Give the backbone structure.
Amino acid sequence: MNRRNSRATLAEPPALRDLPLFASVDSETLARLALEAKVETFDEGAAIFRQGDLVNAVVIVLHGYVKVLRIASSGDETLVGICSDGETVGEPPSGANETYRVSAEAIGPTSVLKFPAARFSRLMKESPSLCAAVVQDAKDKIVALVTEIEALKAQNADQRLASFILSLCPPGEEQCRFRLPYDKRLIAARLGVKQETLSRAFAKLREHGVRTETRDVLVESVSRLAEQCD
């Protein structure tokens, strides 16, 4: 796997107000954050940060996907989650000398927005709106994790795959075609199933109008697919 270093870019940071984390943050705080913002791009497999390293940045995905991993002492990796556009990776530090609890790696070409951790932490203490936004972001992550745990315990592999495919369908369309955002190996890890189990689940979905060719997917009826999630 290619693990080249990141490339710092000269691209202008996006309007911070457009990012979900900062939607309700006051303008003065956003202006101060913008002075510190830096865009970086990463190649496939490049480490954005590693478990155990000191937290030196708050990271938000701009474009692409980032896999979040927990690495055991044996070296075995467990996929904790996959972050996409607008999502924060990890948590801002609450104090000095904190370390990352997970590792983060790019899935394909990926760009992220970084803020120095110490500066971000100080601004959280000075800005009630930024602090509230970070707390809400943490709550949203907990809700997402609870939903994922519920799916792992209450749904079988076929239902989990149907729910995942349904989440990728454009809103308001009854029939759609799209490309899977990453390979089926990662999808299997995200859904908590073996690759052969995932292959059988894809085969069963053909009976319900879901056609796949490598990473290309055709959903003949979104409403019919939704019925398989229950």
Notes: The first strand starts at residue 7 and ends at 8. The CA atoms of residues 58 and 115 lie 5 Å apart. The chain has a mean pLDDT of 90. DSSP finds seven helices and ten strands in the chain.
